[in-house]
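FAQ: What does the model actually see?

It sees only this:
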Amino acid sequence: GLDNVSELVLNDEIIDQDTLLSDMTNLENLTLEDVIFAGFGDLSKLKKLHSVKINASYSDDKLEDAGLVNNLAGLETLDHEITIISDVNITQNIVNGLKNVKISTLKIDKIDKNFDLDLSVLENCKRLELGNIGAITNEIIEDISFMVGLEELELSGDIQIDNYTGLNNLQTLNTLEISQYKETPINLNTIQQLTKIKSLSLYGAKDNC
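And it is asked to produce this:
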């Protein structure tokens, strides 16, 4: 069997079964590269799995042609927190599949089109990192303001936010890091209205050249 595998990389595959990983009890790191998948099934035996990385560049049209929808259903069967990293083109179906997953860190590092994901369903995410996703706007902050379990937030890229006060709704948010890659200055006035932040890091465009 595959019960001794600690790191698994799947590349350019179509996975239409949800039992592939169920008995890989020593699996620690899972990487999906250009993989079409339809959920993982019961992962409750995978006590050591702590990292899932997705690089899924297939279009929604190709997924529909294959009769599958990319999602991470099954991760909610884990009884511990995991880190999830997405390098490109995460879909709303994937986000929705994470609703009941215990997430220590969710990193969305690249989106090829305008960021239109609704993150408000991710109530069990402790740390969120957004970068290279196009413009980061007030609408994204509004969605984040519903992530009630969030403790740390990192935003980097084209920051177009002029109102951060929605983050005051997050009772556990204590760390905020903002890296502005454009010449537009970070709006300090609304950041000063954030009353629960204990650790604040701000990097202007000059610092990121």
